[in-house]
Design the sequence.
């Protein structure tokens, strides 16, 4: 028994209902990973099942976020006193600090719950 979930590119992924842990399919979306900013944890081509919520539990948790009107992205989110820092796992990418008026453009979309990776 599997549930189809749409990602932000319009792709559909079948997810076994057991992975939803009693939640509705509409509580999730699928994010396709592009680039290598979160390598090795997340790799280009991975699909990540994201539980929709507008917060992260703890500073330093990974979340799917939108900022600057860009598409959703996975980043480690560090909550600072008057700012938010979006941190890539790959050290070659500089952290992005969001503060002041920029915070209006920043939204947590959800947290990763399942990684789908095709092995070639």
Sequence:
């Amino acid at each position: 028994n599997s549930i189809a979930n749409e990602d932000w590119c319009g792709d559909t992924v079948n997810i076994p209902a057991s992975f939803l842990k009693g939640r509705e399919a509409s509580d999730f979306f699928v994010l396709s990973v592009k680039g290598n900013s979160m390598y090795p944890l997340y790799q280009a081509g991975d699909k990540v099942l994201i539980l929709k919520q507008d917060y992260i539990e703890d500073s330093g948790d990974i979340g799917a976020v939108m900022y600057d009107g860009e598409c959703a992205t996975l980043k480690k989110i560090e909550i600072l006193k008057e700012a938010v820092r979006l941190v890539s796992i790959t050290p070659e990418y500089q952290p992005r600090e969001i503060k002041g008026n920029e915070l209006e453009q920043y939204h947590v979309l959800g947290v990763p719950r399942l990684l789908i990776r095709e092995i070639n």
